[in-house]
Design goal:
14 helices, Rossmann fold, 8-stranded mixed β-sheet, homodimer, 8 strands, alpha/beta
């Protein structure tokens, strides 16, 4: 079994990842788009704004500090943060959290960027994407020397909707390509309606890249684009995520076309098998449409080694990606960890909350 | 002229600093002790709580974002942040800001620790020093691998008062040893009165180290003690500052005596000549009382190369240290930069605000 499978691009990138010191950067952001009824199931109903804070606390402290009750996870599949946590137990994975506009602050140490969370895209996100891109570039200059590889993940509830919105506004005919935190197909219709309405209302035909992101994007996207731009000059950048990170690649592609110096040889997207095989979205087509030479991989991991019912729901398509779970698994694989070990550790962490 | 002078300890530490990749960590904190009338002049009257935010912005962006007006600095000596900024212009000095309890948030990217600012020591600081120490240790485990040397500075208005308070409460007869942001000798009397009153009210004879810090310390102190404890295991730690950082050494000494594993060979305090030669404080005696084998140095820098009147005020004792200016100069010296170059760059930055 090939542990890490290629979606497109060159496996040379993966070979260079071996035995490199890695920072796991997790960028949290919030968009009020998440409050549109039915748009996301990434978190506890009524407490979606807590998701980034709680995920980070679980990862950092081993338990959620801001809302201890949710330790008892409700019925249904658990958050993919369990997978990333399991990897962190199995091999060293130094964390670096970024608050690019959270609504609920996390109690874990987190680097706060000068940014607030964004409006719903229906009302106009109203963010300053250009400034956030420049902040990302500036910040990357401070940290690029601190490691050899930077895995950049995200925790942005409803972030697939903003990803879909900016990509569509950029001119891609991408209906049906974007993933969802829900397995319900009605959500896809709702998303399309929201995205079309937002673009119709807030994006003019002549809108520039940064105007598009400012109106229908979220703050994670331009910030991460800025970080990846600078770090890719000297180090390797793994965008850990599915279609949300593909949207960041669409931004990088636009920037590169307009003269920004971006070293795509040092950039790859790494996602999960659940996203790669998702029947309700199409990351392969999306990536190919952006640029077929961009490196993209997925970790060939599923819960077939587990008998835990709620973990099996991942294999049924109920959860697909998040907290850079796919990239974290790939990182574990590159460190010689096996699927069975990851599964066992996930079960162990999960049972401690049951 | 010896560029870096020894206060005590071994110069071997300095030799190992040569050509090492360095992170400049600046820990900001706030104590309402700063609001006691006459206790500090570290900032604009009425806006002392802005000092850490503004210093960090000047260092990071090159100008103060939160209060653009103060760009026009008032009469009197400018903030020592100009010195640290000058060094950053002359040699690479990657910044890492920590918010260990600021009152006014900075717009520069800053890692927020789960901590709020503290009460005045007169009312009881009411911080959880033990928890902050553990947070520091935990955080250091995430970052220790990212560089070879960590300069840790502080921006804590009234921080010499909390430093004095915890050191005295630990049993040192240290009246007259602690520095002040003011050249007025009346301030020393005020500080002594405040410190004695705070200890009398809030520190019992049986108080433990962490109880003492929790009652009359500030949040920077236990957090930095935790960071230094862990980083010193594998990397070099420079405590950049004067008597405030000496108080952190007093904490480390207590911890070490009670069994905490701290590698003092990898720790040094580096301060300015203005502190080393200060007639109103006595860092040499303070350090010696803590432990005469701890490494401590000062950078042999003054403004004798400058004709700018307000910079000359440093040499007259009006400003002595802050924003790890002494350690920053030492770092520049180790990188082959000369006093004249630093002076010229400070003048250049200062004149851009005049």
């Amino acid at each position: 079994m090939e542990r890490i499978k290629t979606l497109q691009g060159s496996r040379d990138f993966l070979e260079r990842l071996q035995n490199r010191q890695t920072t796991f950067m997790l960028v949290g952001s919030y968009t009020e788009t998440a409050e549109i009824d039915g748009i996301t199931v990434a978190g506890l109903p009524g407490f979606i704004d807590y998701t980034p804070a709680l995920d980070m606390e679980l990862l950092y402290y081993g338990y959620p500090k801001s809302m201890p009750d949710i330790a008892k996870m409700p019925d249904g599949p658990p958050s993919p943060v369990l997978i990333t946590s399991a990897v962190r137990h199995l091999c060293p994975l130094p964390l670096h959290f970024i608050d690019a506009g959270l609504k609920v602050e996390t109690k874990a140490p987190i680097t706060k960027i000068n940014s607030t969370f964004s409006n719903s895209i229906i009302k106009n996100s109203k963010i300053d994407a250009k400034e956030l891109f420049l902040e990302g570039k500036r910040y990357a200059q401070e940290i690029a020397h601190t490691n050899e590889v930077f895995i950049i993940g995200e925790v942005v509830p409803a972030g697939t909707t903003t990803a879909y919105a900016i990509t569509k506004a950029l001119g891609y005919e991408c209906d049906g390509w974007f993933a969802s935190s829900s397995a319900e197909s009605s959500v896809a219709n709702l998303k399309r309606k929201i995205v079309d309405e937002a673009i119709e209302k807030h994006v003019s035909k002549q809108a520039t890249l940064f105007e598009i992101i400012s109106s229908v994007g979220d703050t994670m996207q331009p910030f991460v684009a800025g970080v990846a731009t600078v770090i890719s000059q000297t180090k390797q950048v793994v965008l850990g995520g599915g279609t949300q990170m593909a949207a960041v690649l669409a931004i990088l592609k636009e920037l590169s076309d307009s003269g920004e110096n971006i070293n795509f040889k040092n950039i790859a997207l790494i996602t999960t098998k659940w996203i790669a095989h998702d029947k309700q979205s199409n990351i392969a087509t999306l990536l190919c449409a952006i640029n077929p030479t961009i490196n993209a991989f997925y970790s060939n991991f599923d819960f077939s080694d587990s008998n835990v019912k709620n973990l099996g729901l991942y294999d049924d398509g109920y959860v697909k990606e998040g907290v850079a779970a796919g990239a974290a698994i790939a990182y574990a694989y590159l460190n010689g960890i096996k699927q069975k070990e990851i599964t066992k550790k996930v079960e162990e962490i999960y049972s401690s909350f049951a």
